[in-house]
Design brief:
By secondary structure, the protein is of the alpha/beta class. The chain has 13 helices and 13 strands. The strands form 3 sheets. It has an 8-stranded parallel beta barrel with strand order 3-4-7-8-9-10-12-13, surrounded by 6 helices. It has a 3-stranded antiparallel β-sheet with strand order 5-6-11, with no helix packed on it. Strands 1-2 form a two-stranded antiparallel ribbon. The structure holds flavin mononucleotide.
Length: 357
């Protein structure tokens, strides 16, 4: 069995690097994304079969040593899919069959919106990076809730935001609308105040605005069974502002921090200037160090008491281990998945098992 398992995984990897990746990378990134999501929906039985294989231990996904309880949730493994890939909750089951232990859907806004004009995703291949300025394109919370009604055993994070037309003074209402609508359909919430592609959204990271957004959510949470609430922050905050958010998290009993979203920093890029200066958030390898530094900062400053989901530039299995070592309880992937292909989450899990032995 083990021989066939390895053969299957090796074939998948060769297929990805020799054929699929060069083919996909020759087309527009957003078109490829829609094509892949469409194919996943069309061929979903293949993914469900694959998931059954996992249950028969054809991968490390259900290995008991990978299980982890964080903010009251039992995760089958610590490797999650970051927000933005399955914005509309269309393929979370298929993605979970690729070895992800949890899927963060969204960012979800109260009303459907198209996002910014296309073209709005760029590959910086020389930097192992992406720039995106999508701007919270999504189907709106009601449609997304419908797709989560039969979510089965997949652990889902609900990443919530505000509509572009909602002024910052009223942002708290948008967050609350999404929170209430998603409440029975997700396992935890990620309050996204860190996307660079919705004008002035990042201003909401100041302590007073954050408090105003979080307070109604906490109040609503207390009326119910209480779901974990996490804040997703920007890597462009300075250390002192990050510490203020940690203090606020203790003050309001927030369950954790997700660090980090994409960066506006364009230093030390190898790609051609024309590409490197595209506006939007940069993700992938150039983000790795800052994101890991922030994990370490929060871990130390919080006396290891605040759970952290580490995301940003995990491009290799070693990058994943480094984030866990720096203090992340869980990690998430986006750009690394685009560059490394469908085996990436599983390979990271295998490496985590090895590191534990
Ligand atoms: C195309 C794209 C779309 C994204 N959309 C969202 C989003 O809607 N909400 C969010 O919180 N983060 C979003 N992100 C940020 C990722 O969740 C992640 O925080 C960031 O990309 C850093 O991780 P990475 O280097 O592994 O990609 C997006 C990233 C990319 C590349």
């Amino acid at each position: 069995m083990s021989f066939f398992k390895e053969l299957f995984h090796k074939t998948e990897q060769i297929l990805w690097s020799a054929f699929l990746k060069p083919f996909f990378f020759s087309f527009d990134p957003e078109k490829v994304h829609h094509f892949v999501v469409g194919a996943m929906k069309l061929f979903s039985p293949i993914f469900y079969l694959r998931k059954s294989f996992y249950h028969f231990k054809l991968s490390g996904k259900n290995h008991p040593s990978l299980e982890k309880e964080v903010f009251g949730i039992k995760f089958p493994n610590p490797v999650g899919l970051a927000a933005g890939f399955d914005k509309n909750a269309e393929v979370y089951k298929q993605m979970s069959s690729l070895g992800f232990g949890f899927i963060e859907i969204g960012t979800v806004t109260p009303v459907a919106q198209d996002g910014n004009p296309k073209k709005r995703i760029f590959r910086l291949v020389n930097d192992n990076a992406l720039i995106n300025r999508l701007g919270f394109n999504n189907d709106g919370v009601d449609k997304i809730v419908d797709r989560l009604r039969n979510r089965g055993d997949v652990i889902i994070g609900g990443n919530i935001g505000k509509n572009k037309v909602t002024p910052n003074e009223n942002a708290k209402d948008d967050y609350l609308i999404c929170f209430k609508a998603l409440y029975d359909h997700v396992d935890y919430f990620a309050v996204n105040v860190s996307s660079p592609n919705t004008p002035n959204l990042r201003d909401l990271q100041n302590i007073n605005d954050l408090r105003e957004i979080l307070f109604p959510l906490i109040k609503e949470n207390k009326k119910r069974e209480t779901k974990p609430i996490l804040i997703k922050i920007s890597p462009d905050l300075n250390d002192s502002d990050i510490k203020k958010i940690v203090d606020l998290s203790f003050d309001l009993k927030i369950d954790g921090i997700i660090t980090s979203n994409t960066t506006l920093d364009r230093n030390n890029l190898k790609s051609k200037k024309k590409l490197a200066i595209e506006s939007g958030g940069l993700s992938g390898e150039p983000l790795n160090k800052r994101s890991t530094d922030i994990i370490r900062l929060i871990h130390q400053y919080s006396n290891k008491k605040l759970p952290i989901i580490g995301v940003g530039g995990i491009m290799s299995t070693q990058d994943a281990l480094d984030k866990l070592k720096a203090g992340a309880s869980l990690i998430q992937l986006y750009t690394g998945f685009i560059y490394n292909g469908p085996s990436f989450a599983r390979n990271i899990n295998k490496e985590i098992i090895k590191s534990l032995n």
